[in-house]
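Sanity check. The docking grid for iron/sulfur cluster depends on where the pocket ends up, so I'm generating a full predicted complex first rather than guessing from homology. Inputs follow.
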Amino acid sequence: MIKEEILDLKKKKGVSILAHNYQIPEIQDIADHLGDSLALSRRARDLDADIIIFCGVLFMAETAAILSPDKKIIIPDPKAGCPLADMVTPEALRELKQKHPDAVVVTYVNSTAEVKAETDICCTSANALEVVNSIPKSREIIFGPDRNLGSWVSAQAGRDLILWDGYCIVHQMFSADRIRELKKEHPGSVVMVHPEVPPEIINESDVALGTGGMIRFAGDSDSNTFIVGTETGMVYRLKTIYPGKNFIPAFSGAICRNMKKITPEKVLRSLKTLGPVVTVPEKIARRARSAIEKMMEIK
Ligand code: SF4
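Predicted complex below; grid placement will be based on this.
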């Protein structure tokens, strides 16, 4: 019933609904476009729609607003924050920059607009390695706020990074012992994990990928069973795309409470009121946009 009301109203009002891969199934099912944060940012920018309801956490909607200043970007619950993004403040980042005045600042998109404004180039989990590889080896790099993504990139790129000590509370929950047990229970399975998980979890995996990469990998792989080490919304997404394959959460408690704050009721309310609108002051947006666009030029 609510689903039909949402689909009807969004059509009448010409609203596009974008949803992250970690959203609850009811939200995934009403979305016009689903994806990881990079894909959704590009989609928001390129979409021929004046009004976008962004079902994700606040930094994602902010990124969309920064890239599309002429569009109305709505988030159904502005309290859907990201604890990882809040682990770095612009003041603290400025202090670190003063200690390393020649360093290039690479910031994960899981960060506030104010922190992006202090950044030279952004990255996502899908392109972090390419972004770091694009920086001359002679330059120091400050990488934040996710230390796990940073140490994975550091190992892949074979260079030291100055890591911010932040982490995602959801991706920190996985246990290497549990993954070893699951591998025994499902011989021949492939373990895919998100690079936000700690290094000891990556060591138990076959591949570390962002959510968009996981979708492509599962489609290309000959394997039929996958152990999935990321937020559990991704398991529903994978099962929907590949109903003939088997996807097992590496930990069924890996739930991002903030992502789950977006509900069909809140989406319906947003459709009725066309709010709450996400705005970023132009002074901050201009500097943040430059860091995001530099990333997009790379991949
Ligand atoms: S899963 Fe982690 S990084 Fe992603 S929004 Fe939730 S807390 Fe933030």
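Relevant for the grid: The two ends are 40 Å apart (CA to CA).
Also worth noting: The mean pLDDT is 97.
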